[in-house]
C-alpha cells in the first residue's frame, strides 16, 4: 500500500478561493470589509516571516490589514494599551499578537487582554471554554486546519479511533476537543498520548487516525502504526541544510517508511502548515460577520 498524499497546499488554495468570493460578497452586499491587525514585538526572524505571510495573504483575499512592528524593549503596559486601542477600533475584527513575546512580557496577560470576539487565534480562555462545550466562535487555527484536511480528503471521522501525540495548548488539547464533539466532522473516540504515557505504541497501533505533534523529528516509525492508518503530521523540524544552503525540513513522522503502511498521510512541508494561515483568515471573516450581526 502506498499512501494518498493529503496536500495542505491544495486544500488551503481551495478554501482561500471560497473565502475570496465570500469577502467580495460581504463588500458588495453589506459594505463590510473584514479587518485583521497583526502585532509583532521585536525582530525574531521566524516571526517576521510568519507575520509577513499573514499580511500577504490578507491582501490577496481582500481583507483589510494593519501591521504593527514594535521594538523588543516595549513595556507590557505599552503593549496592553495598543491592544486596548485595537479592541475599540471598528475597522479591526481580528487581532493577532505574534508569539513568542520578549521575556519581560507575560504572554497570558497579553492574550487575555484581547477582546474574545476579536481573538481569531482562539487562545482566549473564553474561546477555549466555548470550544470545550461545543459552542466555539473560533476554532484554533492549526487544529481547525487538521479537521478540514480530514473532512475535505474524505476521511471518516465519525466513530474513528483517533490518537494524538502531544498535549500542547496550541495543537494537542484543542484538536482532541474538536474531534470528540458530537458534531459532523467529529464524533471520534479520542486518545491523547504524551511524555507520561507508558506504552505509546499500544495506543498508536490502534489508531485509525494518528495526529502527531510530538516536537521530535521522525518520532513515529513504521512499527508504531497499523496498515491503513491516516497520518496527520504537524511537526516541522530543521535537521540540517542542503549543499545550496536551504533548510532540510522533516516532520515528526518517518514519512518514507510510514507512507508504505498508511492509507493517507500529510507531507512536511506542504501538509498542515499551509492550512494554519488560511484558518486565521476564515476566523477573521467570521469575526467580521459576528460584529456586523450577520451570524
Strand order of the largest sheet: 1-11-8-7-5-6
Q: Write the element-wise H/E pattern from the N-terminal end onward.
A: EHEHEHEHHHEHEHEEEEHEH
CATH topology of the largest domain: Rossmann fold
The number of helical elements comes to 10
Integer average pLDDT? 95
User: What is the count of β-strands?
Assistant: 11
CATH class assignment of the largest domain: Alpha Beta
Kindly give the count of domains. 2
Q: How would you classify the helix and strand content by structural class?
A: alpha/beta
CATH superfamily of the largest domain: NAD(P)-binding Rossmann-like Domain
Rg of Cα set? 19 Å
Low-confidence stretches: none
Q: What is the helical fraction, as a range of percent?
A: 25-40%
Query: Main β-sheet: number of strands, strand sense, barrel status?
Result: 6 strands, parallel
Shape: globular
What is the level-2 CATH architecture name of the largest domain?
3-Layer(aba) Sandwich
Please report which band the strand proportion falls in: under 5%, 5-15%, 15-25%, 25-35%, 35-45% or over 45%: 15-25%
Distance between the termini: 45 Å
